[in-house]
Write a structure and sequence with these properties.
Helix content: under 10%
Radius of gyration: 15 Å
Order of helices and strands: EEEEEEEE
Structural class: mainly beta
Low-confidence stretches: none
Strand content: over 45%
Number of helices: 0
């Protein structure tokens, strides 16, 4: 059911995501990554998860993968905006989020 060139059923680009860092007690820092993808049908569930680390670690980068869980049953073929969000603990060096399997880079802003 992948109708887009990249083989995925939901399409998105860097402009569709934000990454906001927050600092908590004892120096803990997290980033909230939010995005909206255009999916081929309603009912998709999108998830952000940590991606496999690169061979050479890039300390300025948090690597994620965006996965799609297709709807069950019959659904209308209507392009549907679908939100995704995830929160991840990060080091102070992290400046950007790379959604590795989609080649999307998002700069981290302090919140």
């Amino acid at each position: 059911m992948s109708g887009y060139e990249n083989g995925f059923a939901c399409e998105a680009g860097s402009q569709d995501f934000t990454a906001t860092a927050h600092r908590y007690g004892k120096g803990r820092r997290t980033v909230t990554v939010k995005g909206t993808c255009q999916c081929r049908t309603p009912g998709f569930e999108l998830k952000l998860a940590l991606a496999s680390p690169p061979i050479v670690k890039v300390p300025e980068e948090l690597r994620l993968d965006l996965t799609e869980v297709p709807p069950g049953g019959t659904v209308a073929q209507v392009i549907t905006p679908t939100d995704v969000e995830g929160e991840f603990e990060i080091d102070d060096e992290v400046e950007r989020v790379l959604i590795h399997n989609r080649n999307i880079t998002v700069l981290v802003k302090e919140g």
